[in-house]
What does this fold into?
Amino acid sequence: MVLLDGKEVSRQIRAQIALEVSGLIGNGKRAPHLAAVLVGDDPASQTYVSNKEKACREVGFLFSVYRLPDSTTGEELTEVVDFINKDNEVDGLIVQLPLPPHISPTRIIEAIDPSKDVDGYHPLNFGRMALNLPSFLPATPLGILKILEHYRIETDGKSCVVIGRSQTVGTPVSLLLSRKSTPGNCTVTICHSRSHNLVEISSGADILIVAAGRPEMVGADMVKEGSVVIDVGIHRLTDANTKKGYRITGDVKFDKVAPRTSHITPVPGGVGPMTVVSLLLNTLKAYKKEVYC
Ligand SMILES: NC(=O)c1ccc[n+]([C@@H]2O[C@H](COP(=O)([O-])OP(=O)(O)OC[C@H]3O[C@@H](n4cnc5c(N)ncnc54)[C@H](OP(=O)(O)O)[C@@H]3O)[C@@H](O)[C@H]2O)c1
It folds into this structure.
């Protein structure tokens, strides 16, 4: 069994990005610049934004964060988005989700200039992705493609089952793997909470991608011998037997499933680091105007 080491793959990609950025700066150009908007004081969102800032700074990107109070209205947030849209010194713009319940995320995402939408959530980018046109791909699905590519995992003609149909992970990754491209050309089945016979379906998969948000729901009976398993889930479970009092786990029972697989991502250290590095790749793409000229 080969461990798909997202930490190491992301380290290599970050090193390449940092080299490219130092070359740009050496040639007198400005560094790529990512702006993040954070509304409210949700601790998890604050951690996500500071992780993104750290990743940006490490590769030499500029990073700005716009912190707004929880009481911000949808109109005020749209004005901030519009202000950043017009700032020619900013290449990528992300609005950290979730937003407070009184703000519609759809309206805010639609307000982002698609050429700066490095999260790939804008309907224009989503549509372009589905049509196999140049676009910003959502970070987690892009990270999954990058890890499959790095380990030269054959996807052509393979049967791929995706558990989960969220707009940010399950649906885009299923589209991407069914596209006529490499990685891609899979025969994809997408499962969700209403799916019947989940065990039967998932145990037929050559490539199983689990993004259900259910701790350790996938056991050995759901996995085909010799298959590739990508575990997107990430959970912190209370565990009195550990020093910290908790352990981090995924949607897959790693110890039971790993011996049956040919390749598997660990949690932590699999898909998570690939997600952060994908945001950097998209920001660099926006800077180089590779998607929209
Ligand atoms: N590592 C990373 O970088 C990263 C990035 C993003 C997300 N995540 C993690 O990945 C997981 C999924 O994230 P998400 O945002 O896609 O979650 P989400 O929006 O909650 O979507 C979960 C999906 O799983 C389906 N589902 C739930 N229970 C199921 C079950 N028992 N059987 C089959 N399908 C089931 C749901 O079906 P319905 O549509 O029918 O409700 C839904 O489509 C979470 O643990 C999240 O924290 C990790």
